[in-house]
Amino acid sequence: MHTIRHTDVRRALLAALIVIPMLAATACGSAADNPAGQAAHAAATPSANTPTPAPASQTFTSRQYGFRTTLTKDWSETDAIAPWDGKELQGLSSPAFANITDPATDRTLAVAAARVAKGMKLAAWRAAMLRAAPQVCSESPSAEATTLDSERALVWTARCSDGYDVHKLAALHGRRGYMLLLASQTANDDAADQRIFDAMRRSFRFTRP
C-alpha cells in the first residue's frame, strides 16, 4: 500500500514539473506576441478618419462663348466652332455647342449662348428654351431659381425618349442668353448626375462681360 502511494506521489510531482514550465512559456509567449499582433493588425486596418483623396480636376474654357468650368480629368472638351442663333436646342454633336464629355459614363455638358433682345427677362428666355427643345423631350413644367457666377438662373429637367435625362439651366449675362445642358443616359445614377451638374454650376465663371 505504501509503495503504491509513494509511486503515485512521484508521478504527480513529475507531471507538475512538466506542466508548469509549459504554462509559463505559453504565458510569456502571449505577453510578447499579443502587443505585436495587435500593432500589426492596427497598422493593416485603415482608419475610418483617413480622408479619401479628391479626384484630379481640370478647367475647360470656351473661347466661343466666354466661360470656363471645372470637372474631373475624365472629361474632354470640344469647343463650339460656329455661333448659335438661340432658336433650337440641337443635338450634342452640333458645332454650335461647346461639348465637355465623359466617355466612360456617356455624360455630356453642352453649353451655348446667343444674343438676346435688350430688356429680355430670365423667365422669357427660359420660355424660349422650352420652345426650342426637341419634340422627343418632355420638359418639367416648373423651374427652380439658382445662380450662375452670381447671375440669376433657372434650372429644370427633361426626359427624352432617345434614352437621355437632361439637367438644364438658363441664364442671362450681358446681352447674351446662356443655355447649359447636362445630358446623361437614363441608366446612369440620378444622384450622380445631380452632383456633377451642381459642381459644374458652382465652378462656372464668365470670362467676358
The CATH superfamily of the largest domain is identified as Mog1/PsbP, alpha/beta/alpha sandwich
Our estimate of the beta-strand percent is 25-35%
Described by its quaternary structure, the protein is single chain
Shape: globular
Tell me about the biggest sheet? Answer: 8 strands, antiparallel
Please give the structural blueprint.
Layout: H1 2-44, E1 57-62, E2 67-72, E3 76-78, E4 98-102, E5 107-115, H2 122-132, E6 137-139, E7 144-148, E8 151-160, E9 164-173, E10 176-185, H3 190-203, E11 205-206
Antiparallel strand pairs: 1-2, 2-11, 3-4, 4-5, 5-10, 6-8, 7-8, 8-9, 9-10
Describe the overall structure.
The chain is α+β, with helices and mostly antiparallel strands. The protein has two domains: 1-52; 57-206, 3-Layer(aba) Sandwich (Protein Transport Mog1p, Chain A). The protein has three helices and eleven strands. The protein has helices spanning 2-44, 122-132, 190-203, and strands at residues 57-62, 67-72, 76-78, 98-102, 107-115, 137-139, 144-148, 151-160, 164-173, 176-185, 205-206. The strands form two sheets. Strands 3, 4, 5, 6, 7, 8, 9 and 10 form an eight-stranded antiparallel sheet that branches. Strands 1-2-11 form a three-stranded antiparallel sheet. A hairpin with a 4-residue loop joins strand 1 and strand 2. The termini are far apart. Residues 1-32 and 39-44 have low confidence and may be disordered.
